């Protein structure tokens, strides 16, 4: 399918041309032309009348299947443009939804995409009804007034049904999440701009072969995998990629997926270190904007500058320092900025940062475990090594073990008949508090 892209730039609309063209290609379009204009928004056509005439000539000459605007179009603007051009006109967010529809595989992802599409369609149908009443148009998608109003009722009914289905998925996921916490798993959410390399990083951490392509929005389905971190039980979840100006209707539709970030113990934010600093900054700020909307900026965060193999180490160090400065200015709970190459498996800095991050979590703490029965010591030690880190062991009639463990595992240890009390982490062995 052929498409003509239209970009209008102004103080309020800062569109990245390269990203827009990549979106078009990711949706499967052949980009036959890109038309650009610098001006404020025209209320009727978005672009000026002179540029509209130029666009009309391009449509006649190139015969595209669609005209795609990089800017958001109001329903009335979309209709006015269609009336002038007589070819389907969509905006950037409809384009993103087309990509989502192609990438969605699981039932949940398909429901989320359908919900987002229906939410976007509601104002278009309302505009069609308004036009019909003015005698300006036959109806939405060729429907009459009655059919269009009935279609709007159907959309609202379907949206309600999808939301109920997604609530069930959310409840099932919450049960699984609680069980994972009970058995001692640390939850890490991979977040970041689309095409930053999150899926490749998940594969490198977990030794998996999840689909990872050099294109936008490869991942829509939530994927959770286990990996080892110095013996600790860790789960890492890949989430849908962010994009600049992600609209509320998409955030709402994908809330059950993005909730993996909300519930995570640690956020691992991935940035593409091979890009120019201006692009990294833009995408970092866009990612922080989504995290702010999800109310997760207070979570411990590790930033991974990925694809360091495509640039120099000095360049990566400079970019890392700039990321730290932005985080400090905005009061972000940024623990570390590390350099990695997920493709080449160079993750040493990341492992170290995640190990340090785990030990700062409220759910982790230093405890003294007292085992009175010698035959139970191997079993207790094995359990501790599976859920934490042994700091010190004193064998005797009563074996005393100092260890970092997850507080959710205390009940499992007490079932073995051991005594537990929390240690003052600043001076282990003193300032003991009663435990379970």
Key features?
single chain, 436 residues, alpha/beta, Rossmann fold, 4 domains, five-stranded antiparallel sheet, 15 strands, 21% strand, disordered C terminus
As a whole number of angstroms, the C-alpha radius of gyration is: 27 Å
Cα separation of the termini = 66 Å
Main beta-sheet annotation? 6 strands, mixed
Calculate the mean pLDDT score and round it: 84
CATH-derived architecture of the largest domain: 3-Layer(aba) Sandwich
Low-confidence stretches: 426-436
Q: Which shape, going by the Cα principal axes?
A: elongated
Give an overview of the whole structure:
Strand 12 (389-394) and strand 13 (399-406) form a beta hairpin. 45% of the residues lie in helices and 21% in strands. The protein has 14 helices and 15 strands. The protein has helices at 17-26, 49-62, 75-85, 92-103, 107-133, 145-182, 198-206, 248-253, 255-262, 277-293, 313-329, 348-358, 377-387, 410-414, and strands at 2-9, 30-38, 66-69, 88-91, 186-192, 223-229, 232-238, 266-272, 301-306, 334-339, 364-371, 389-394, 399-406, 419-422, 433-434. The chain has four domains: 2-100, GTPase HflX, N-terminal domain (Rossmann fold), CATH 3.40.50.11060; 104-165; 184-358, Rossmann fold, CATH 3.40.50.300; 364-434, 2-Layer Sandwich (Alpha-Beta Plaits), CATH 3.30.70. By secondary structure, the protein is α/β, with parallel strands linked by helices. The protein has a six-stranded mixed β-sheet with strand order 6-7-5-8-9-10, with helices on both faces. A five-stranded antiparallel β-sheet has the order 12-13-11-14-15. Residues 186-362 form the Hflx-type G domain. It is found in: Cytoplasm. GTP binds at residues 192-199, 217-221, 238-241, 306-309, 341-343. Monomer. Associates with the 50S ribosomal subunit. Its cofactor is Mg(2+).
């Amino acid at each position: 399918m052929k498409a003509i892209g239209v970009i209008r730039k102004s103080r309020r609309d800062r569109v990245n041309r390269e990203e827009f063209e990549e979106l078009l290609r990711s949706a499967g379009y052949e980009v036959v032309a890109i038309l650009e204009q610098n001006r404020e928004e025209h209320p009727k056509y978005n672009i000026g009348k002179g540029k509209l005439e130029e666009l009309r000539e391009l449509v006649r000459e190139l015969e595209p299947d669609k005209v795609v605007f990089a800017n958001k179009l109001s329903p009335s603007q979309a209709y006015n443009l269609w009336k002038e051009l007589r070819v389907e006109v969509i905006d950037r967010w409809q384009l993103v939804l087309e990509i989502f529809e192609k990438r969605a595989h699981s039932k949940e992802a398909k429901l989320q995409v359908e919900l987002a599409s229906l939410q976007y369609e509601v104002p278009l149908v309302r505009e069609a009804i308004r036009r019909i009443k003015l005698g300006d148009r036959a109806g939405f998608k060729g429907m009459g007034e009655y059919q269009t109003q009935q279609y709007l009722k159907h959309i609202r009914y379907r949206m309600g049904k999808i939301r109920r289905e997604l609530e069930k998925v959310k409840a099932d996921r919450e049960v699984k999440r609680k069980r994972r916490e009970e058995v001692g798993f640390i939850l890490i959410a991979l977040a970041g701009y689309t095409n930053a390399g999150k899926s490749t990083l998940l594969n490198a951490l977990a030794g998996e072969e999840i689909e990872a392509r050099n294109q936008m929005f490869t991942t829509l389905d939530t994927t959770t995998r286990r990996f080892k971190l110095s013996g600790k039980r860790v789960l890492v979840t890949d989430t849908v990629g962010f994009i600049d100006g992600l609209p509320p209707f998409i955030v709402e539709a994908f809330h059950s997926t993005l909730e993996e970030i909300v519930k995570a113990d640690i956020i691992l934010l991935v940035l593409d270190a091979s890009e120019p600093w201006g692009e990294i900054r833009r995408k970092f700020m866009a990612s922080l904007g989504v995290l702010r909307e999800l109310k997760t900026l207070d979570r411990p965060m590790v930033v991974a500058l990925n694809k360091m193999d495509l640039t120099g180490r000095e360049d990566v160090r400079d970019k890392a320092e700039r990321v730290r400065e932005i985080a400090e200015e905005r009061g972000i709970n940024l623990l570390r900025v590390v350099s990695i190459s997920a493709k080449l498996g160079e993750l040493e800095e990341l492992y170290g940062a995640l190990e340090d991050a785990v030990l700062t979590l409220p759910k982790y703490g230093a405890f003294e475990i007292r085992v009175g029965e010698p035959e139970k010591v191997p079993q207790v030690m094995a359990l501790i090594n599976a859920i934490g880190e042994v700091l010190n062991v004193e064998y005797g009639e009563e074996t005393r073990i100092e260890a970092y463990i997850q507080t959710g595992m205390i009940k499992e240890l007490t079932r073995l008949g051991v005594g537990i009390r929390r240690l003052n982490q600043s001076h282990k062995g003193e300032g003991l508090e009663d435990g379970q």
